Amino acid sequence: MKTMKIMMLLVVLGATMTATAQKYGKTPEDSVDCVTNLYLYKEAFNSKNYLEAYEPWKEVLRTCPGNHKNTYIRGETIMKAQYNATKDPVEREQLIQELMHMYDLRIQYFGEAAEITAKKGYDCEQLRGIDGLNEYYGYYSEAMRLGGDKVKPVYIENYFDATIRYVLRGLGDTVMIIDNYDIATDALDKIAARTTDSAALAEVRQVINNVEAKFSPFASCEELVNIYTKKFEATPDDLNLLKKITTILRKKGCTKTDLFFAATEKLHAMEPTPQTAYLMGQMCYNKDQFSKAVGYLNEAVEGMDDNSDKYKVYILMGLSYASNNSYSSARSAYLRAAEMQPTKGEPYRLIAQLYASSHRSIDDGLGGRTAYWAAVDKANKAKAIDPSEENVSAANKLINAYSSSYPSQSDAFMENLIDGQTYRVPGWIGETTIVRTRK
């Protein structure tokens, strides 16, 4: 029966030989061998007789390596079964080399160089163990160079694990860990950005968390600054280095260091982007340079398209204006933030705080306490548009604090004000509100 099936396949092959010569072999003899062995190895493979499939599968790989990707996918199972079937170290070494060669052929005929090179690293690590560190670290590194965001997240974590082992065995220094952390997290961030499936995204985020946890022991701000200050001073105009410094220090929360400020300032001067302008705005704000912060933030927001990014810029702009006692400008910035994210209560809470904190600037005959009415109005608006637990809790705290600072009923009466009356808060606030007093 097997012979009959093979003969039938050969007849079909003969009819299509010219069109599919490359697929089934370069010569007629190779094509005959290819079809015969394709049938033999598939029969064995489908019956899970992987050891029996090995020899005909090898012939397929020899005579028609471009036949089908499944030759390589099944080949992993066949090769590993062969490996597990022997304990002889010489045979095992030969099989590992055959497996690596199989992956090289797969890349040659079917591409996916980054992913398959990473797979080489993974299999080498599994089969050789720690003794194969130099080899599998090399494969992982090459895969990341070919396109880290094109490999499975688990391989990226393996790459970073291998980096740490490499350094701990004295084969590299801490700089290698820091540099490869940057490579790994950049690739993972790109994968996460384009992943829409919730389960897959959760996997990517878990790997990101794992890499962050493994990096932490090597990543104190002091150590990062010590390492990169020397590099920065040696080549202050190295654009790639500037990007690396600012990215790593930002990810590790080292944004208040002098190095981060200097590197970001240099980067913005050499290659200004909305992101570098925003970073400069943040740093100037942290240094109490509020006017400079506003300048950078205006530059940042002009170049941004995404409303969520603009929202963050306008919030920081409002805080900068408020810190400079530019209350009207601060309110305008918060209102622009509200336009960018209409369901967020934060901008209105910030306006409430702005009104309350500036109450002494209001000449109302009541020590500026009418500002608290407008403040509570804004806190209530925050609650109305954003029912999230965090926002409601924060807004309620403001309402409780500010309502306790309302003018007393007797003081209000002296200004001809009674509860429930419409009232326009004077000064820069200029809000129409309702009179409320402490009883």
Poorly predicted ranges: 6-22
Mean pLDDT: 90
Instruction: For the record, give the distance between the C-alpha atoms at the N and C termini, rounded to a whole number.
Output: 101 Å
Sheet/helix structural class: mainly alpha
Shape: elongated
With helices defined by DSSP (H or I, 4 residues minimum), what is the helix count?
Answer: 22
| Number of beta-strand segments | 2
Q: What share of the residues lie within helices?
A: over 70%
- Give the C-alpha Rg: 33 Å
Strand order of the largest sheet: 1-2
Q: Tell me the β content.
A: under 5%
N-to-C order of helices and strands? HHHHHHHHHHHHHHHHHHHHHHEE
Report on the biggest sheet.
2 strands, antiparallel
What labels describe this entry?
2 strands, mainly alpha, single chain, 22 helices, elongated, 439 residues
